[in-house]
Amino acid sequence: MPDQSGRPTLLYYLYCGLTSVAAPLVWRTVRNKLQAANVPEQRQQERLGHASLPRPAGQLIWFHAASVGETLSVISLIKRLGERLPEAEFLITSGTPTSAALIEKRMPPRARHQYPPLDTAGPVRRFLDHWRSDAGIFVESEIWPRLIVECATRGTPLALLNARLSDKSVDGWKKRPKTARFILDHFRLFLTQNDKTAQNLISMGAHPDLVQPGTNLKAMSDPLPVDQATLSDIRAQIGNRPVWIASSTHAGEEETVLAAHAALIKRWPDLLLLLIPRHPERSADVAALVKQAGFNAAIRSKGDEITDHAHVYVADTLGETGTWYALCPIVFLGGSLKEIGGHNPFEPAQAGAAVITGPGYFNFAETFAPLIETGGALQIQSAPELAEAVATWLSDPAALDTARTAANSCVNTQKSALDAIVDTLCIKLNLTIPDSTSSG
Description:
Layout lengths: L9 H27 L4 H4 L15 E5 L3 H6 L1 H10 L4 E5 L3 H9 L5 E4 L6 H11 L3 E5 L5 H9 L4 E6 L3 H8 L2 H8 L4 E4 L2 H10 L6 E3 L14 H11 L4 E7 L4 H14 L4 E6 L5 H10 L4 E3 L12 E3 L6 H7 L2 E4 L12 H5 L3 E4 L7 H10 L2 E3 L3 H13 L1 H19 L2 H11 L6 H4 L2
Parallel strand pairs: 1-2, 1-4, 2-3, 4-5, 5-6, 6-7, 8-9, 8-12, 9-11, 10-11, 12-13, 13-14
Helix pairs in contact: 4-19, 6-7, 11-14, 12-17, 17-18
């Protein structure tokens, strides 16, 4: 165990001072976003450390994530940890209304959600005074200096789980080695997504004995939920038409997808593209692009039916992606044609799909590598290559089945590591069944 008594650096004090001065402006910006998403006033106050729920009695384990993907990635882990610790309660914090809405639909047993406090003195202390968690588990790259230091000062054991840091972030911390080491010394465990992140953390000042390279936790998450009624309804509307999916697309990517669809539809005139923009608020822009490409669109949020005249179905709703994946085993995953970093390929793979990606999947490099190597995923660079990949699987069911089997095999291989993560967290964070329970 490293010496955690290191003194705060001048840079840390400067950070605390600047965030305190900027707090009113930051709060105003955060509040406006929450109000725009129709988050109730009481829940907005959670960002100031005012809890909207009581603290449950007994052991409380806190998971802190940034947004949707990180939040959903810990659901399976919390369920398994809850089975290991049958009296433990769980707190999940995440910063976006979208993540809050989705976690409410998939809440693990004995868990509750709150928005995290702003990283300033008052909100952090109010939050910690109320919840008094027995352990804090930060997910991926959620490094908030004051929150981390205050937790450790109170004796709360901390872990950084599924750790992933961008090269830019690593370079920035390396320029401030004393502050980086001061922050990292407050963690008892670092479980990383890959060897590269493990080495980066060590080079930033993390104690090597506390760093363990692992696997991407998102590979172990539960399959996305499927609404059977919606699935049956949409299947009936589609009938026997061939279908392919472009999921989690971002601005600048739909043009490539639609160009590929234009090429494919020459061979399969009744082909349907199910287009799922990553951000539903872009629906109008996406619909305009569909029209500009010469296609007729049916819009999910408007309740449009999929008629024979619809070339593209724009699925612009939240929480239904699992249902769409259940419709079709050919999925192009967006966020990869631009320098965005890609999205989690295990979500479509768990649903039985084979995956196509652009080259820009660097946030999931270690996840895509085995998928591509085994043939469960294909990498493309352009609209013609995307059309060719989709055409290969549309025209050759045996090749598609082989790719789907390979993708599913990769998922199952990763899932076997979940129990090992639970074991490590329990040991390093002193998470045990209370004596009164174990002795009964």
